[in-house]
Specification:
about 120 residues; alpha+beta; Nucleotidyltransferase, domain 5; four-stranded mixed beta sheet
Length: about 120
């Protein structure tokens, strides 16, 4: 039986292979029990153009917690703002094998509202 983490990593690998073929920057999201991380990674796969996470004190101020949908929306807006400042308008959404639900969905919706296209 495949455990949960390996199954998630397999899904992530499959979607990243497809994103690599698209040759556009990707908005990569990682979720842990405590925090949420988002990065816009360049087409070369090694350059981080923008990042935001609940670990950053400037984004965490005013939030009740770092592991809820409200925090995900703040991260989504911040990553959109920082990506646009870096000159990136269109990205591919890399959810890292996580379900498009809850915090991941809230982050994606907020990033779209912030002006990112994906």
């Amino acid at each position: 039986m495949i455990d949960k983490k390996i199954a998630r990593q397999r899904r992530a690998r499959k979607s990243r292979a497809h994103i690599r073929d698209l040759a556009v920057p990707r908005l990569s999201v990682h979720r842990t029990d405590q925090h949420l991380y988002a990065q816009v990674i360049g087409t070369d796969g090694g350059t981080v153009l923008a990042s935001a996470s609940t670990v950053q004190k400037s984004l965490r101020d005013g939030l009740k917690g770092s592991k809820n949908k409200a925090a995900a929306e703040v991260i989504g807006k911040a990553i959109a703002e920082r990506a646009l400042a870096a000159g990136v308008e269109s990205v591919a959404f890399d959810r890292s094998g996580f379900k498009y639900h809850g915090r991941i969905q809230a982050l994606a919706d907020a990033a779209r509202e912030g002006g990112l296209k994906f």
